[in-house]
Write a structure and sequence with these properties.
This protein is of the alpha+beta class and 533 residues long. 48% of the residues lie in helices and 19% in strands.
Length: 533
């Protein structure tokens, strides 16, 4: 199950409202026309719309855009319907279920349904139509019952009603309410031990923590990379195995974890000096690994050319902790084909084989350079970091960019251009979620092909290679206990999103269409009653 693809699919259905200037202009124009029409239709025509606007202001008092939006779309029908029927006031109720949908991030479904009911009754009260009460009740009931069915479908999967899960996420997206979402995530999280591998070379720290940098924006551990860098700017944080199940529940605990790692780095105790036995390339099936062999420890940069990786199996961490073989998911091509079933055994066999091919001790040669790259789409941060690593014979060029994966075309260009400088040019991203889910309608944009980035990476690798020198490598690990992560519940949430989201996308129109259908039926009913009378 590709959680990123599923989440992106449904997140992308959220749309932004038009610019407030456009909405305001339409509202002003419609209001003028309604005032003019009231001279012909009577002041009740004007009063009812004015009450409707007042009701919108009461409901959405802090959201001018929603007030203007509902005013505009309702006003359009309110202007048109008098040319068709004398029961034009029913148009004031057409978008009450949509109002109900917008209230769900804040209110329970029963309260939202009640507001749907009264939002129909109050503006139409001047027309003294007793049938509007029955009509309004039916609209509110269908809206409530529909949300009830959605809740039940989610509850069957997760044990929690769909809206209890969805509400804090919607609040975060629509209202930028980070607090309620993190409270919810903390309530479903559990305590675990976070394993951290640290490789120190000169003043650089290669950090591989058992943490996924999500969920998005500033939620959970999305900012962990930057939090750790704020403690020590020489940290280079890599992405290990695992997905959102090892997201830290809250940003505050993520910061505490970052501080703990930084303290461990500053301590002079427990650092183990490593011997280096060279750069080793291996492949297994669709995977390619470049392993730095330090004898008792290894560090592997893992790629899956042409197919991509969207998070490796979490159980690879068991292999890492047991054997000190650290795995970096380069995350440099978005997934185009699901991971094969033998991924776990294939990766383990490849690393083990490379580690067992012992040779002579070799020098560890490192060069580093960095700069800022601008005007390249898909970067969460414009800092470009480049490392040159050599064992005296083979060499690697690590191009580290702050993005959530990469377009395969960018990776291809990096390999082609920088392949003239080193044997193994490798683009690396940390699966950065700090700029994901921050714009309604788009979950994230992977790093896009950018000639400026490729050119700058080439210059920096050349500079790093010129500055490269023999270095000593030290290792330290840490186990941080009691860190709250999302765990397997996130998988249930994704499953619920897939099943409930699929149902909702096919059926959400039912409450929205109800007022239009009922209006036709009630107008026909009222017309027949008047004819018979």
């Amino acid at each position: 199950m590709n959680s990123e693809a599923i989440t992106r699919k449904y997140y992308s259905k959220l749309k932004s409202l038009p610019d407030i200037k456009i909405l305001s202009t339409v509202t002003a124009l419609e209001s003028v026309i309604i005032v003019l029409r009231s001279f012909e239709l009577g002041l009740v025509y004007l009063y009812s719309f004015a009450v409707y606007i007042a009701l919108l202001v009461t409901i959405f008092i802090k959201d001018k855009k929603l007030i203007l939006f509902f005013s505009d779309i309702t006003g359009l029908f309110y202007l048109i319907l008098p040319f068709i029927t004398t029961y034009y006031y029913y148009s004031l109720t057409f978008f009450s279920p949509l109002i109900g949908y917008t209230l769900l991030p804040k209110y329970s479904e029963s309260r939202a349904a009640f507001i749907v009911f009264i939002s129909n009754i109050i503006p139409t009260i001047f027309f003294f139509d007793p049938y509007i009460v029955i009509y309004s009740f039916l609209i509110a009931f269908i809206f409530y019952y529909y949300i009830h069915t959605v809740n039940k479908k989610g509850e069957k999967i997760t044990g929690i009603k769909s809206m209890q899960i969805l509400r804090p996420f919607l609040s975060n997206v629509v209202k930028k309410d980070k607090t309620s979402l993190e409270k919810f995530l903390e309530s479903i999280s559990f305590k675990t031990t976070v394993h951290v591998g640290l490789f120190k070379v000169d003043d650089l720290f290669f950090v591989i923590p058992k943490i996924h940098y999500g969920i998005s924006g500033e939620i959970g551990s999305s900012k962990f990379i930057y939090q750790l860098e704020s403690e020590n700017n020489h940290n280079i944080v890599f992405h290990g195995p695992g997905s959102h199940e090892i997201d830290i529940a809250t940003s505050s605990q993520s910061m505490i974890t970052a501080k703990r790692i930084a303290e461990k780095e500053k301590s002079t105790e427990d650092w183990l000096k490593l011997n280096f036995y060279g750069i080793k390339e291996w492949s297994c099936g669709e995977f390619r690994g470049i392993t730095l062999d330090f004898g008792s420890k290894t560090l592997t940069f893992l790629e899956r050319p042409n197919y991509g990786i969207d998070d490796l199996p979490l159980k690879l961490w068991d292999f890492t902790v047991k054997t000190n073989n650290y795995i970096i998911d380069c995350h440099n091509e978005y997934l185009t084909k699901d991971l094969p079933l033998n991924s776990y055994s294939c990766i383990i066999n490849g690393i083990t084989k490379a580690r067992n091919e012992k040779g002579n001790e070799r020098p560890f040669i490192l060069g580093y350079a960095e700069d800022i790259v601008n005007n390249c789409e898909g970067l969460c941060n414009n800092r470009l970091r480049v490392m040159y690593i050599s064992d005296g014979e083979k060499d690697i060029g690590l191009i580290y960019i702050y993005s959530n994966n990469s377009d395969p075309e960018l990776t291809k260009k990096i390999r082609q251009r920088l392949g003239t400088l080193v044997k193994y040019p490798i683009l690396v991203t940390p699966d950065d979620h700090s700029c994901t889910g921050t714009i309604a309608g788009d979950l994230y944009t992977p790093a896009q092909p950018c000639d400026t980035l490729v050119g700058k990476a080439y210059e920096l690798l050349k500079k790093a290679k010129e500055k490269a020198h023999e270095s000593e490598v030290y290792f330290k690990k840490d186990d941080i206990k009691g860190v709250r992560v999302l765990g397997s519940f996130i998988s249930l949430m994704v499953k619920a999103l897939e099943e409930v989201g699929g149902y909702a996308m096919k059926t959400f129109w039912i409450p929205l269409l109800t007022p239009f259908i009922l209006t036709i039926l009630f107008i026909l009913l009222l017309t027949n009653i008047h004819i018979e009378f």
